[in-house]
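Late entry, written up from scratch paper. The run itself happened at the end of the previous shift, but nothing got recorded in the book at the time, so transcribing now.
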Amino acid sequence: MNKNRSIAKIITLLGISWFVFWACAPMMSAPPSPPIPDTQVHESGISINGGAMFAENPLGDLAHPQGYNGGALNLQTHYRRPIDAGGEFGLISSIGLPSMIAGGAYYRAPGYSGDIFNIAPQIELGFLWTGFRVPMSVKVEDKVWVTTQPALTAGSQSHLMVPLGISRTLNNGFRLDSEFGVRYELNGEYGFEYLDIGGPWAFMGQVGISYHGKRKQNQLDEDFEETGVSGATILKRP
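Output as recorded:
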């Protein structure tokens, strides 16, 4: 009985190791491109993304793409936290197909941040993969951003990704993020023949919800009542 349990544990461990070994970077923007509001201290979010894969370039005939050979569906999460000196850091993760189980950390440098346009370089590192992204966002209305986040990742699955999206700030500290993009696998056979998943081209879409709360704004209001110093002065960064 104990021998059977030991064998089962070994098989389970090998199975987990196999899936983790094939883990790749998150399939879509991670985290979203819009900056964290200056009045907040963190942001967390969850999204779902999916799409269709093609053996041939689908951009040649968008109305009738050829060579469909598989689909993708993933659940993605993120946690973001600003740094006093500027920029931010956080955690990103993804589970599903073809990302399997992926997790890592990222750092987004200060870059350029204005009232309307934001751009910053981002580097990330996970188990058996690394990545570089350039999050960009343009504010078209008070609560609406048009976004993109070109990405290059390298690892067990290396790919190029170019998305285009819209983010809208909602009430009570929430933001709705959505995007659609084209992904190209750089590893030839996509690395998932045993699951009958294809590529190397893919159309991908993502929709998610992020929450950055109101905690810091409440604290700033309390500080203003005590000191008379405005939140804008307190939050001003070098």
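Residues 2-235 form a domain with the Porin fold (CATH 2.40.160).
(Scratch paper discarded after transcription.)
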